[in-house]
Amino acid sequence: MIFSTLEHILTHISFSVVSIVITIHFLTLFLLVDEVVGLYDSSEKGMIVTFFCITGLLVTRWIYSGHFPLSDLYESLIFLSWGFSLIHMVYYFKKRKNDLSAITAPSVIFTQGFATSGLLTKMHQSAILAPALQSQWLMMHVSMMVLGYAALLCGSLLSVALLVITFRKAIKIIGKNNNLLNQSFSFGEIQYMNERSNVLLNTYFLSSKNFYRYQLTQQLDRWSYRIISLGFIFLTIGILSGAVWANEAWGSYWNWDPKETWAFITWTVFAIYLHTRTNKNLEGVNSALVASMGFLIIWICYFGVNLLGIGLHSYGSFTLTSN
Amino acid sequence: METLLNPSKTPKLFVPKTHLFKSSLLHSTFNPQPHTLFSRRLLSITITCKVKTSQGRKNDGKNVSKKILLPDSAPELSNEEVKAKPKSGGGAWGLFRKLPKIVLAVLSNLPLAIGEMFSVAALMALGTAIDQGEAPEFYFQKYPEENPVLGFFTWRWVLTLGLDHMFSSPIFLGTLILLGTSLMACTYTTQIPLVKVARRWSFLQSADAIRKQEFSDTLPRASVKDLGVVLMGAGYEVFLKGPSLYAFKGLAGRFAPIGVHLAMLLIMAGGTLSATGSFRGSVTVPQGLNFVMGDVLGPTGFLSTPTEAFNTEVHVNRFYMDYYDSGEVSQFHTDLSLFDLNGKEVMRKTLSVNDPLRYGGITIYQTDWSFSALQVLKDDEGPFNLAMAPMKVNGDKKLFGTFLPVGDTDSPNIKGISMLARDLQSIFLYDQQGKFTGVRRPNSKLPIEIDGTKLVIVDAIGSSGLDLKTDPGVATVYAGFGALMLTTCISYLSHAQIWALQDGTTVIVGGKTNRAKAEFPDEMNCLLDRVPEIVESSISKQPGSIGG
């Protein structure tokens, strides 16, 4: 009982803190510079609080259920949002001031919001572990996969932001109220990135707009490359440890199971992304296109396959049909 | 013969010429050895002027005099191909001799490789979209000719291209093989030469060349030696010669992609070995019965050869399940004994899911289970063994049932007691009218009275579903996995190079990196902040004073 209460409290704290962080981000867009700095610091502190809350949440669940908290979709979503905040923390400590929270904070709130929303209420109670999942490999395989998803999603969102900024001119020509267009294009965070660049450009550098836009896109490009490379490592380790596990549990290291296949497709797409980076001609917009394709493919791999509930990886499928 | 020798010579074509580096540079080679900056820096450096020698020395005797530009990344192979053609115009023999080179050039083309990866990904996606391994009738129904999917896709496509068994279809395997050859060609023609370039380090002698780097800065009143110390502290390998400094870090990150490619090839080779040299089979054995491994195992490819261990007889001593408190199955166990030809027990083990049995290259997995029979006492007579039959009621959930006739067994419509079970734990009993009467657990000895018949359920006999396989490719594949994980991690390292030049009292610093472009300027600024400012302007002329 105490565990579920604790879980509730931690969920609510982290959720509200991220909401506040996002609100602060939006505020900084419209307020003056000297106030912005202080608010920015507090938003970073907010992300740290969120990180510890989600960590606490996962640990609570671990103790409560007795197994690593990654056995169903709800837990993996919470873990995904933990992954986002972890990436944020890692790059925050590496480089004090970063623009990553524009991507990570909304990602955290979206995944958490989805996990705790009504759609998955039935799955909140930590379920029992299926026989095939009772292995030490669970920890390694699933945590690596979800961390990989988190990093790759982050990186490809940066690429999507790059694309939006690059093609913003074209969008502007189409219609004045591009905010609406952007919003429908890809969640709120891209719009936010836009706004951010907008403010930066309009306030200080009206004359050299294009130069700063170029600088921003270059930054986005480099960061997305870096984060995708990191995610690619996690994904590789995740897939390979999964293969080794499959050789223990199912009798073959590769079964062409839908989930496996889609993980491999994801891997291939991001391998293509990394290869496009080796060629100067394909860098920038082209590689960003590949990465944004990867963004969709991760979601197919993560959700789509589970939604259909086919294949051997049916542990995380939605319980809409039965029960 | 000549053509056979050709490939081995090809990489030498890409030996960089000095025009790669900005014209006025001195190009030097260096024997890699553990190196301390201050004690030996002047002794261990050997400078070889390569302005004229590289081409002549490497291509001695070979008829190659093509000019190959090596850009920072992949060489422009398409150019070479164009140039190669007019030369070989002399005759068919000339063309034939050039062929391997042309093929190599085409295969190692980056856009081609990207295209191949895209097609592999697309085929895999298609393979998950189309149901695999169904009977042709299924495809006739699902992709009818009258109503094609997307206007053109019918069952003819599926069956002619073999999309019903995508992952073993020639079209998919062909693409994979093409990708594999591309991988080899690229490693051979592009990556290995790149290593040679990366290993060859050089000082930059002109301030302009340094300023042209991706990152550059000027430090007034500083010494290049202080910079060297700071860089060494940050993990750089530092080389100093006179006023010039060269430092690098993370060279392994430059080499690791080769390892990634080789690991991929290793995995592919192992996978091929697995596909051609394996035996597989599955069997459902009721508790208490035997089978011979060789009877179950069937070869998967032409390389499959049976071994001595195939004669081993397997006896299922016991099959049982563990349950959670909620009644759901937590684990399956099978207690197996292996007997050799002489009937001697060579091994005994209880296997479960995630804990297979390995013997003589054969692995036995717990993959499935079934309900074999129910042992009942009817009015204290028996026990009778009632065979349980699997029932398909709702979806793929396991459900087994049996029927015990009651009364006149010769009458045309027999009535009796039905028994249903989802697992070996609880048996649901229904009377002659089909009404639910109760649940009994095997071993509980608790009798149940149905329509005047007293029943005791003595035991539930399960059968264990086992998968057997031999796989000679696993070792290779695992080696590839290990190598791939390691090299992918190392690939994250960024190869950073820094040049510096002492110009009077100022130091001009320039640097570049291949991956961590976002962090590099910050890191550099951080390092350069630590370089001490020199008050006395003459200090740079006393070389020994700082080293200490």
TrEMBL record, chain A:
Q: Which GO terms describe its biological process?
A: cytochrome complex assembly
Where are its TM segments located? Answer: 12-33, 45-64, 76-93, 140-167, 223-246, 261-276, 288-312
Any GO CC annotation of this UniProt entry: chloroplast thylakoid membrane
Q: Which GO terms describe its molecular function?
A: heme binding
User: Which compartment or compartments is the protein found in?
Assistant: Membrane; Plastid, Chloroplast thylakoid membrane
Cytochrome c assembly protein domain location is: 70-313
| Keyword terms | Chloroplast, Cytochrome c-type biogenesis, Membrane, Plastid, Thylakoid, Transmembrane, Transmembrane helix
Superkingdom classification of source: Eukaryota
**Membrane protein topology class:** Multi-pass membrane protein
One family name in Pfam for this protein: Cytochrom_C_asm
| Function statement | Required during biogenesis of c-type cytochromes (cytochrome c6 and cytochrome f) at the step of heme attachment.
Matching NCBIfam families, A to Z?
cytochr_II_ccsB
> How does this protein assemble?
May interact with Ccs1.
The similarity annotation says: Belongs to the CcmF/CycK/Ccl1/NrfE/CcsA family.
Name-wise, this protein is Cytochrome c biogenesis protein CcsA
- Protein species of origin: Durio zibethinus (Durian)
Automatic annotation (TrEMBL), chain B:
Q: Which GO terms describe its cellular component?
A: membrane
Does the keyword Hydrolase feature in the UniProt annotation? no
Q: Species name for this entry?
A: Durio zibethinus (Durian)
Give the keywords, sorted: Cytochrome c-type biogenesis, Membrane, Transmembrane, Transmembrane helix
User: Known InterPro entries for this protein?
Assistant: Cyt_c_bgen_Ccs1/CcsB/ResB, ResB-like_domain
Gene from which the chain derives: LOC111298679
Cited HAMAP family: CytC_Ccs1
Record's bilayer topology term: Multi-pass membrane protein
Task: List the protein's name.
Answer: Cytochrome c biogenesis protein CCS1, chloroplastic-like isoform X1
Instruction: Please state every residue range assigned to the domain named ResB-like.
Output: 112-372, 419-524
Q: Which GO terms describe its biological process?
A: cytochrome complex assembly
Q: Where in the cell is it found?
A: Membrane
A Pfam family matched by this chain, by name? ResB
